[in-house]
Amino acid sequence: MVETPPLAKRALVWRRIPWLNLLGVVAVVLAGTALVVKNVPNAGANQILNVSYDPTRELYAAIDKAFVPQYRAHSGITVDIKESHGGSGRQLRSVLDGTQKANVVSLALISDIETLSKRGLIAANWQQRLPNNSVPYTSTIVFVVRKGNPKAIHDWPDLINTGVSVVSPNPRTSGNGQLSVLAAWGSVTTRGGSPAQASAYVKTLLTHVAVSDAGARGAGDSFTLAKIGDVQLTWENEALREVAANKDELELVYPPVSILAEPAVAWVDANVADPNTATYAKAYLDYLFTDAAQEQVAQYGYRPFKADILAKHADRLPPLALFPITAIAKDWSDAREQFFGTNGILDAISAAPPGAVSGI
């Protein structure tokens, strides 16, 4: 297992580095934070690798533990499932360049898998191969604050109040980071604001980011363990986990509006040429859509796509006002290109001097 660098070292690298300065330090991100990989697979029978995004470690450990004996009872075969976790953007690049021979991907954004499809690694019809357009669960971006909420952070505008320090992952490497930008933008435009006002808001928000790790879990460590920042922008499941582990120190705040995040899954056609491997990969992903797996999804703080199971967990996963990606872009791929592509909105905001964003 490749270990993440010690927290103290990571905090030293990232402390007080706002997003606006990140364009020149992407190499530091890639060099300074290792992928967390559980037993990268060696050549062998009955083995698949799931390349996933940063905070799904606990969920897929539970999924694997349940799936393996069930599949063995059904088929007589014991499947050995390996897991790799890191920032979703970084995981995507590792599959694209062949560093990780993923048989299955479970990534933070539909656009991550669309990128693999456009490069010929996954079939064009991948969303039609599994239920619910291959989205087994949804999530959103919420706030984690210090106990008592001393900075009175309840809504997106509160994040840019004087003296508020924000922790959120790097949008160049993290799905959480990208979703935070998209949620921030949509918090303006879906409530009647103009694109120019959204640009000005997001630009100001970026100047409040005190630390920006490569992935969601690293950002959580910076906030909870290194105690950097007043508020963390993070996945709902990460917020639930962090608050449960730090009840005397942290609180979860649901903003009035946020984005509907749609993590997606697919088998990687280019890496399942062996018929047996393909069978295991497909069975593994099929399992995610069963009632048993959907219960596990809810228990680990993700929102099951099955409405009846989600309703059973309304005490921890309350109904929310979440806007779809189509409220701010044509689809997830358009959002990636529009906001995070070369010369996209993030580049323009990052490069623009103060007061120069009104034309975006």
UniProtKB/TrEMBL annotation:
Gene Ontology MF: a single term: molecular carrier activity
Transmembrane spans: 19-37
Keyword Transport part of the UniProt annotation: yes
Entry GO terms, CC: periplasmic space
Pfam (any one): SBP_bac_11
Keywords: Membrane, Periplasm, Signal, Transmembrane, Transmembrane helix, Transport
Gene Ontology biological-process entries: sulfate transmembrane transport
Localization: Periplasm
PANTHER family with a match to the protein in the record: SULFATE-BINDING PROTEIN
Family label: Belongs to the prokaryotic sulfate-binding protein family.
Protein name: ABC-type sulfate transport system, periplasmic component
Species of origin: Mycobacterium numidiamassiliense
The organism's taxonomic lineage, starting at the top: Bacteria, Bacillati, Actinomycetota, Actinomycetes, Mycobacteriales
